[in-house]
Protein 1
Amino acid sequence: MAAAMTEKISFFDELELVGHAPDGVEGVAMIKQENPDLVLMDIQMPHMDGIDATLQVKSFAPHVKVIITTVMDDNEHIFHAIKAGADGYLLKDADPGMLRDAVLEVMEGGAPMSPNVARKALTLLRTGAEPERHSSDRDLLSSRETEILKELSKGSVYTEVAESLFIAPSTVRKHVENIYKKLQVHSKIEAIDLARRKGLF
């Protein structure tokens, strides 16, 4: 994606590319460092997908505009990208002119979307139905890990979680480490937010 986007951006002098990253983790780190006005975010990336990366970016830099640029146009990805805070959603077949218009529109407060995506987004809005989660999401955490995360979401500390579930604090800590690895997050707040967004509890 990076090479294709770089080529499209190069057509327009008013758009300056400050960097690109090979995966979501590096992308989030680069955004923290560079503080760009706007990010073109792919969904399919190693280590952290674009939806989770968007959620993280919006948590520490809500002013940064994020346009999803992807081949994924199914209801599930559209719904979760918008819910994560994406400001626009373009399919990768968008030509350079459409990309430029989308960038200018989003910087003026708009929400650019490819026509097919816009139709699906409106349908989701009208029906109010959240797309069904994939089984991979439902099975992401074990029942014990889900219990622990629920307790943490209530504001409980490790010792309180341990007492509530009749396990040792060290066991709670180990489960939390596994939760972080499975969800690819680095803090309790991120884990809780992501688990809620995925409908894990």
Protein 2
Amino acid sequence: MQTVKIGLLGCGTVGSGVARLLTEKVNEYARRSGYRLELSKILVRDRDRSRPAGIDPDLFTTDPAEILEDEEIQIIVEVMGGIDPAREYLLQAIGSGKHVVTANKALIARHGQELFEAASENEVSLYIEASVAGGLPIIQTLKRSLVANQLLSLHGIINGTTNYILSAMTDEGREFQEVLAEAQAKGYAEADPTDDIEGYDAVYKLAILSSLVFEQPIQLKQIHRVGISRIASQDIAYAKQFGYVIKLLAIAKQENGHFQARVSPTMIPVDHPLASVNGVYNAILIKGDAAGDIMFYGQGAGSMPTASAVVSDIINIATELENPPNTLMASNHLGDPVNLGPPDSVVNRYYVRVLTEDKSGVLGQIGTLLGREDISVHTLLQRKADPGNAELVFITHPVSDQKLRQAIAQIRQLETTQEIYSIIRVEDFVE
């Protein structure tokens, strides 16, 4: 039986999971794949640091050259995270004719085109399943199982931290800061949670997925991003009253002849399958022109779910070593970036919550300003707030982003407007 040697860059949460699977299941993987997968070396910063039991300490090295320049190592697995030196190491590995597996979403989102071009030029494989949604086999499905389809849309809950926070706020009526502190205490959120709560993590993942949906590269700056830090318990309560739940939703789709990609808090109907995805779980809903709707659900992060995706990529590469690299994996990351539609091409319904002075004529003023932008109101509530003020909540009929922004700017300038608390997209999933 042929042995395939593997070099592992990083041994943190995910890396230790990969090492554990490759060590504990070596015979099982050999039986399934026909190849013996041998973990040859593991790059770490500190050899003396305590590591999970079961990993041979002789495998550890602090010298990347021991892995990158070892001619017997055929597959490099990068789970160290960050941009540099990970990018430098992978380009060196690819240039040396080594196949690569990475779980690094930020690296692929920022430099995927460069890495895939290098892999294509050097005729090696670059697999990225673990870079998006951990244990959900979404990349391989989009590239292989759905290759006969034109992908029409993708809607995803792809960040477990924000989903945990919004789920707790919905189920328990608690405020954002309180639930965030709990998520940090449980290890679901980082000490600096900015990447998660402001949507950057989801944008990285959506950039990768969007390149598959649009069949062209997409740049991070092209993706509209809004985080969840301004979502209040009042918004959650109003959403329930209107028959919705709020999720941080990643969307890539073609609409009115234009492409759009965005990550933002979104109200979705309570009876939609994505509405029942709670806690740290992820879900992705794909629509193909032939296959229709397909939904993936599972753990989007963590040591073993992500390690599972990494090892699956390793096995796939090992079984294809005698064949030319699979160009399907690279095709959507090469070429010119996709052209997204202009601002007025994106049409949605919107929920808006405004604090105004409680005076006669205020509602009429706001209605007039909305009317000037051809915005009609679907649902309206007005409630007493603190003394002398009222809270005005309304959901619009479909309107372009541009027209809504213009109307909101005018409402904000009214003397009676105290604060515009929230502007949240409403997604009804109507074809």
Protein 3
Amino acid sequence: MANPKQKRSRSRTHMKRAKIYRPISVPMAVCPNCGQPKLPHRVCLHCGYYNGKQILEVAE
């Protein structure tokens, strides 16, 4: 069976774990209709528009 040849230091272990649990930044786009930030390729939750068409009815 394969075994590690050398001990892995605490520093290397912690650096690896820090990379796993790092928060992921979410890309944001600007809605061309209302100017609010929104997720790309999704309906704007503020105005309900996507690709120039109203998809959702938003209560004002």
